[in-house]
Amino acid sequence: MLTYTYRRLLISIPTLLFISLVIFLLLELAPGDPMAQVPLTVPDEVKQKMREALGLGEPLHVRFGLWLWQFFVIEPLHLIDNLFGTTFAEGQQRVISWQTRSPVMDIVAQRMPQTLWVVGTAYVVAVLIAVPIGVYSAYRQYSLFDQAGTFITMIGFSIPPFFSGVLVIVIFSIQLGWFPSIYDTTHVVNDWDSFVVQLKQMVMPVMVLALQITSQISRYMRASMLDNLGQDYVRTARAKGMREKTVVLVHVLRNSLIPVVTVVALLVPSIFGGAIITEQVFKVNGIGQLLITAIQANDLPMVQTLTFIFAVLIVLFNLIADILYGILDPRIRYD
How many domains, the chain? Predict the structure, then answer.
């Protein structure tokens, strides 16, 4: 397993480099001018100097190599300096946002906690709901609960977040007035009342994200349970007089969770992608909304950095899913 992990990590390096090159080239082909936000009263020669200051006067390969150096060397050294008080990255040029003229990773670090709060809570809620639904639906196959669960999960999987987000705002915020329609990222939790306010403003974005996650995981859980309920070891356990609760919740559930755990790991990057739309709908000041505003402002360093972070998440969690599958199932060997 260690050899396989090392090999996959080595393969990930050229994969990520190729992905970064593709992202860079695609953004270079995108229309727009970073100087479009500059007032028309600014002379052309001043705009040209601003382009040169942003590095736009350099050739394509030079700018790509500079971004690689800044992202993979300067930014980690800057993180080490902040953690341990060293000066390795002192005076070094970091990846700068064209829109805010601030380091990109500093802005990402400010926005990331908001996204993790919403996405992390939605994922935990979805898994806690999806696993029992999948188990009971499989055990009571074709029952009223199973049919209702199948219908609801199909709807939840089919409805996109931009529609379900607006729908819950209309119902729970406008019509019923239970929850705020806009997520206040400046809210500080320092007592019980402020904690209740934080919970209320998290309910709707978490609900929208958890709906899609629950729909997917519950279907995987149901299919895996049905596959294991028909195995010989289940009939043997029942023939020996083992309690039905023990057979289902210990033996069948444990074996059924093996493929589901890998699916849960693979779904994590896609949830960050779904959070882009959800954050825009509820005005959550996270990295999803940051990406949208960067695209609108033609802030290429910010867009390139955020899309590459999403690509890293996809490669990383694919590796984690493969490793988890090998650990949970002793029959799997990566030789």
Answer: 1
Three-state SS for the chain is: CHHHHHHHHHHHHHHHHHHHHHHHHHHHHCCCCHHHHCCCCCCHHHHHHHHHHCCCCCCHHHHHHHHHHHHHHHHHHHHHHHHHCCCCCCCCCCCECCCCCCEHHHHHHHHHHHHHHHHHHHHHHHHHHHHHHHHHHHHCCCCHHHHHHHHHHHHHHHCCHHHHHHHHHHHHHHHCCCCCCCCCCCCCCCCHHHHHHHHHHHHHHHHHHHHHHHHHHHHHHHHHHHHHHCCHHHHHHHHCCCCHHHHHHHHHHHHHHHHHHHHHHHHHHHHHHHHHHHHHHHCCCCHHHHHHHHHHCCCHHHHHHHHHHHHHHHHHHHHHHHHHHHHHCCCCCCC
In a domain, 309, yes or no: yes
Asked, for residue 101, whether it belongs to a domain, the answer is: no
166-221 pLDDT per residue, tens? 888 888 888 888 888 777 777 777 778 888 888 888 888 888 888 888 888 888 88
pLDDT in tens, 2-61: 777 777 778 888 888 888 888 888 877 766 666 666 666 666 676 666 666 666 667 778
The residue range of the domain holding 165 is 107-328
Q: Are 315 and 15 in contact (CB under 8 A)?
A: yes
List pLDDT tens digits, range 225-271.
Answer: 888 887 888 888 888 888 888 888 878 887 888 778 878 887 777 77
Q: Is residue 84 part of a domain?
A: no
Residue 27 lies in a domain: no
Residue percentage of the chain with pLDDT more than 70: 89
Chain length of the chain: 335
